[in-house]
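Teaching assistant here, posting this on the class forum so everyone can see the example we discussed in section. The complex has two components, and the goal was to see what a joint structure prediction looks like when all of them are supplied at once.
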Amino acid sequence: MPSLGTSFGRGGATVWLPDIANADCILIEGSNFAEAHPVGFRFVMEAKERGATIIHVDPRFTRTSAMADIYAPIRSGTDIAFLGGIINYVLTNERYFKEYVYAYTNASNIVSEKFQDTEDLDGVFSGYDKEGRVYDTSTWAYEKDERGHVKRDPSFQHPRCVLNLLRRHYSRYTAEMVERVCGIPPATFTKIADLLASNSGREKTTAFAYALGWTQHTDGVQMIRTAAVLQLLLGNIGRPGGGIMALRGHADIQGATDIATLYDLLPGYLPTPSALRDEQTLAAWLKTNTKPTGWWANTPKYMVSLLKAFYGEHAKAENDYCFDYLPQLIGDHSMLPLVFAMKDGTVKGYFAIGQNPGASNQNAGLTRAAMEQLEWFVNIDSYDNETVSFWRREGADPSKIGTEVFFLPAATVLEKEGTMTQTSRMLQWHDRAIKPLGDSKSDAWYFTWFAKRLKELYADSTDPKDRPIQHMTWDYDHDDPSERAKGEPSVLKVLQEINGYRVADGEQVASFTELKDDGSTACGGWIYSGVCPDKQNNRARNRDGSGPYTALNWGFAWPANRRTLYNRASADPDGKPWSERKKYVWWDESQGKWTGIDVPDFIATKAPNTPADPDGKGMDAHSGADPFIMMMDGRGQLFVASGLKDGPLPAHYEPVQSVVRNELYGQQSNPAYGEYRRDDNPYNGEVSDDYPYVLTTYRITEYSGIMTKYVPWLAELQPAAFAEIDPELAVEKGIKNGGWVTISTATGDMEARALVSGRMQPLRVTSKGQRKRVHQIGVPYNFGEMTGLARGDSVGNLIPIALDPNVSIHESKTLTCNIRAGRRPPRHRDRIDAPVPAQERDPLGQPIGDWAKAHHGHGYQHMQGDEHGGSEV
Amino acid sequence: MATGFFTDTTLCIGCKACEVACKQWNELPSDGFAFSGNSYDNTVELSGTTWRHVAFVEQTMPTEDGVANRWLMSSDVCKHCTNAGCMEACPTGAIIRNEYDSVFIQPDVCNGCGYCVVSCPFGVVDLIERFDPEGTHYNLASLSEERVEEQKTALQGHGGVAGKCTLCYDRQKLGFVPACAKACPTESIQFGNIDELRERARARVETLTKRGIHAELYGADDAGGGVGPLNAFFLLTDRPEAYNLPAEPVLPSTRQPAGYTAAAVTALGLAIAGWMIFRNA
């Protein structure tokens, strides 16, 4: 989530679901809210009942569109052009929330004269290295005065102040351009732009909601950034009924990034150290990752406390708190690069837990082929799935596969206890409802015993490299003797460790403000601090919904139980609510503190008129009117000077595989995207006559993961893989509703049942001055060939691997394809399965160019910016 | 107290949670895994083992800029008619009106004759097929061995009789809201005292009309054709036929007087004709 991180300071949704009901207008784009988040959608319906206008922009008319007041069909992957058009509209017509923008954003910052915009370089920014396919971001910096402070122009006259750069950058994003690129008629566009502007300002707020429809693109981070810029201009961040709702796909995806399944992040969004940066000692790591100003000045406290939690008594000041025990990155070790490394034989073992990459990975055929090269594979799941059964897939010869496969039964969510962190950043505890069936065990059980056995195996080793295992703390034994006898760890103890405690007496800390950098405190994930403020209190268990609608005694939302982030911005610079109607958090002069219906996201007693100390450290550098406390300058970032790898301002690029040429610039696609030129990862080409249709993928309400496909009540609701096709294309291709179709790309093919519907509609766009009719085909991403009651080919077989430069996310939401009536031929071994020539290989599975050097360790940029740049959390 | 459902289709998002919650609570099998090609609707209709069914109605109209779409969703259910055709037709007395004023089939009394099936003006009631323990329609795979036996026994009890919504009689007895209404995330399915629901529905029509939305109630008052008011009624935004609901439902027994008269007239006519033919013989 570096887009939200670099714009506002934390990589989480800025709002929480029930607050959407307070919006006056809701723009849902890049999300099928009603289908993918039906329970959360009740708050959209509530807003609608209160009179809010619901707008849905999507390539398909979905169940969300059916509920919307306005639906605009858009060509898949052109959201930056659309939102950029609205930014242009808002700036040109002077409809931005001036007081908010002037006070709370970096609009007045003056950018360096070395900076060159896409306007100057036909679609790339200054600093681009064509050979290495990476940016040197140093020219994106701000101009500084002699004391090293960023220059500002509060009169907004300077041509290089951020506001004027924005005007220039988006000047070509006109309503006509939006029509040419996105296929949205100018009348519809203007209506939506006007609605957003009319429903923002002092009296009203507009909320944005997005999900994977914005994420899964080679410029996905920049799509979300465009929304962030627009919401800052409209003054909707930190205010009730405003903000950006990042809808998370699974129950605990937020928790998974918080505490911390990403390879480049330690718990609490602390970057994993890297061998390619000067981070080989704790002091060096702290130097790179501690910010002089803003909340991240506290980084040393969080890192040292984390190391104390990891290594206990062994972590001491004299040994750098065991900092050198942490593994160091040497490239991009995210999931898809690892698949290439497996295929080429670098990676020899693989754990897949709670996921089904054999069906859901992009280029799923490659994943299954790569698994044949492994020495061993461990799958922990509740059901048979395409991944663990890769050796018996169509076209495979099990007698020639040497991989040793271990399939371990997992307890389901009802069979274990613990917390889940949902989309509103809220931790909620759930109890165990039934005992695990048969030999099934919780994931915590498996990892406890992996750890315990490893410690036992290495107990007598004198080799220094084994000390991280020997010294790792692992004291989660259950207090209940019967649970302990079964080997079940206490997940409550894990949560208590995440909360943090004082080393001397073992007492819990009440909040992350109590953490120290001298080794006297331990904390497994500082952002959750406060969830277990004492041994008897687990706030994730709280279920008191009384009081104001913020219901602060229901669950625990990080950080510090705040519901709406940056809520200082719900008051004006003087600390008064912008309006009575949108009152939320304000300065109470008589009590000398911030108050309201939420926990203030601000230093509680810092008065609004407190001046900033330009030479101050930490929070002293912020004034009492700087609401974005994680940022070095306390402001929302319209321009991101550093922290992003593909530009300080979002610019529209075509998808890597598109049906048209970029109308806006000479540069066709994101110049920094992660490309693999390998035989087993073929692309359709930038624009190819062989693949004339747009393909978009999504999930449907009826399923989530593998377990749902074993439920007959769900399988009967959507029994087969299907493709949604517009009637015009169906007639042209002789496709009958309900009949079979085969969809193909250079990467692979799949068959599905045709669902011909007027909900899919061809769009009129322009490519190189030529009018063009674009057909879009939609295929759900839920099916797999081999397991479950409802089976079908996975669309993952069709999508080549191409990565966003900031987070290595793939481009599943938009690509090109061909389609014909009828079923596909039987599968046989092809070039996806064959070994690739040595010259195409990278031992770490990195894309071409200087990817490994420039793009490893994305965690770095989650919090790393320049002096006034972005950060995570 | 008379209870019922008010299904407000303007709030339905088509998530089908009602269908699944109903089947889970009532331990009903799936109806098979056939792809219908009919929008997102693959259960297609109410049956002996599908007691809630979400209809998906796609309406597409060409416009200057492309097309205008409307996608109506509506969760259909047994109407629990004031004058229930199924109940009148039942020869064994298996179908009764219970203390919640719902039309309830007693499975232990039902002999599976099927008279109710053809007598329902809405095509709701259907016979439940014989239970096939090997069938994949049942959610047996995920159960422990003891539970499989228990489940098989429970399912066997359903076989060969007529089935339809019970308005979750068992849940109501425990003070619970019916499973479908409980699961509905958007309050499209509202459960409660039928008089209160009717009042609420009328207010809702007024609200929607003020907003310029065409809204009409279906079955809140007399549904016509002798059926009377429905205890499960609907708020629609199009004609009932669009949702596959009969515009003029008819209780079969209301046709009896006309039928008997026609039979009597025919008999009389035949008698006269016979008399005329054989008069000269």
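For the discussion questions: Residues 680 and 765 of chain A are 33 Å apart (CA to CA). Chain A touches chain B through 49 residues (CB under 8 Å). Think about how each of these relates to the inputs above.
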